[in-house]
Amino acid sequence: MSFLSSFNISASALTSQRVRMDVISENIANSETTRANGVPQTPYRRKVAVLGSATKQLSFNDYLSKYTSSGGVRVNAILEDNSPFKTVHDPSHPDADENGDVRMPNVDIVQEMIDMMSATRAYESNITVLDAMKSMAQKALELGR
User: pLDDT at position 65, please?
Assistant: First the structure.
């Protein structure tokens, strides 16, 4: 693994955490949306970003090379959460059924805020790693003078 691939790994983690924060923000923004795509009685369904390894399939020549790119993080998929919708009794709501019940999105604001804090901390950690690597590179250049 080359020194510069460490920058690529942290950069991919930053990008993945940003996407994760975007998905969480979308969930929070749509936590009261009872009409997904304008269809009545079809509430917004919570989405989750699935992160995974960004390692590529290595060929035989890659194994022989000492400069093989190793890893990183990527968003493998953005999936919908299939947990049941919440039901709220509100007969005055335009999307209420014949019993006066309204199907609400399966978004839990507390869980979304916890996920957002986790993503933010992971982002900050990767910024710290990038700063440390930059400092090490600068010190190495100073040694060469």
Answer: 52
Mean pLDDT within 30-34? 92
Segment 43-60 shows an average pLDDT of: 81
The pair of structure tokens assigned to 93 is 């709501």
Q: Is the pLDDT assigned to residue 14 strictly greater than 60?
A: yes
Task: Quote the CA–CA distance of 22 and 58 in Å, as a whole number.
Answer: 31
* Residue span of the structural domain in which 17 resides: 3-32+49-83+109-143
Answer whether residue 79 is part of any domain. yes
CB atoms within 10 A of CB 54: 19
Q: Are 72 and 8 in contact (CB under 8 A)?
A: yes
Show Cβ contacts of residue 59 under 8 Å, excluding neighbours closer than 6 positions. Answer: none
For the chain, how many structural domains are there in total? 1
- Report the amino acid identity of residue 26: E
